[in-house]
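Please annotate this fold before class:
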Amino acid sequence: MSVADKSQKKSGGLGETVSVIVQALLLAIVIRTLLFQPFSIPSGSMRPTLLEGDYLFVTKWAYGYSRHSLPFSPDLFSGRIWATPPERGDVAVFKYPPNPSLDYIKRVVGLPGDRIQMRDGQLYINGVAVQRELIGQIDNPDITEENRPVDVYRETLPNGVSFDTLDVTPNGVSDNTREFVVPQGHYFMMGDNRDNSADSRVFGFVPEENFVGRANIIFFSIAGGASPLEVWKWPSQIRPSRLLNFVD
């Protein structure tokens, strides 16, 4: 084989490698944009439903597609394509209205036109108290980060969606609010950890365009602030009971 043949073969091999890498990147972008996007939970605002160290997939097609479905949210168009409205009770990822470069995750409690208010720790929707039942207490620092038992309530929204909430601070500063009237095209979001959640009670309503997708399944979970790449910590820090759990 001549030097020219060897050079041509080497060049061809490099070109094939680059082509494979480009195709893989394009496929990853398509999957991330249209199908699934991974997210990690950085705070305790959605306890006990979601914990820090949970890693989950968000379904991107659940609400249709907006510019926020694309990497870096390019300002290519407004509104949503193939839009399906979020449903009450959905746990959804959205762009933080004051700073759309940040991703937030909360639960949809208020739909367009709803009147939302907290009174003495009780959620009211359109003047009617949401069903709320004390089901027990949690005394697990991995879930509550408290050094005492914390009350757990089971809430059931008007459409029948039920989920657990924490009452860390009875008569807390967020337990009583003014009445919020949700504008058309917007939603009212709240964390399940009601006393430790910066949500629509603080930053206001979330435009429909800001929704990224619906939280679907927890595919990995690790405690103690450990990274999933720190495999040597898995035996002591991984949470086996949370793996492959659907998000309620």
Summary: The two ends are 64 Å apart (CA to CA).
